[in-house]
User: Which sequence fits this backbone?
């Protein structure tokens, strides 16, 4: 199913923001993020038809809810969290109809480790970072590539990569902490996390 971008061209929504002259155009947002959103969906949903349906669903939700975004700088993180919530809803519906495999129930909390839950929770936050940071952390934090191997594969000095990873992690930490609070034990191990009340999105 194709994305109805045509309707955006005759019904472009321009939302005035708090700062004079600051606007967000739905069509501009979609043209900028459609490809990366589709790539994010493909990483979590195997069927291409389902991906197209979910992408259209996200477009409609964006059209309906973008008025809640008060800060243009947080638009990307809001959009990818919206995509993550849409994927979760998709699998919940399939679970109720019993048309779902055990491996697809990654959002279920029962029996799932905190680190596993955080891994799925944090994906949209990584995708919301600038592309260079998102690519770096996706490979190292999510795919498990060691920093040494990554440096060798990309012809970088190990010390340079370590510095880049640290800066990218700091950006991610600031973004993540806006929505989620992580609890650790006396040894620094993560034992729980929860959504902050001020965050509009699910953690």
Assistant:
């Amino acid at each position: 199913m194709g994305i109805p971008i045509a309707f955006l061209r005759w019904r472009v929504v321009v939302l005035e923001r708090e700062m004079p002259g600051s606007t967000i155009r739905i069509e501009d947002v979609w043209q900028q993020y459609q490809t990366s959103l589709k790539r994010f969906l493909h990483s979590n949903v195997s069927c291409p038809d389902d991906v197209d349906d979910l992408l259209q669903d996200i477009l409609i939700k964006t059209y309906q809810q973008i008025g809640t975004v008060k800060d243009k700088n947080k638009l990307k993180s809001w959009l990818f969290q919206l995509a993550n919530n849409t994927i979760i809803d998709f699998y919940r519906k399939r679970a109720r109809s019993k048309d779902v495999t055990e491996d697809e129930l990654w959002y279920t909390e029962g029996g799932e480790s905190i680190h596993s839950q955080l891994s799925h929770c944090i994906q949209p936050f990584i995708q919301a970072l600038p592309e260079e940071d998102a690519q770096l952390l996706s490979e190292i934090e999510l795919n498990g590539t060691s920093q040494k191997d990554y440096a060798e594969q990309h012809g970088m000095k190990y010390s340079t990569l370590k510095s880049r990873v640290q800066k990218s992690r700091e950006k991610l930490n600031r973004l993540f902490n806006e929505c989620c609070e992580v609890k650790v034990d006396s040894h620094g191990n993560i034992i729980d996390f929860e959504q902050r009340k001020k965050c509009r999105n699910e953690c």
Observations:
- The longest helix spans residues 75-96.
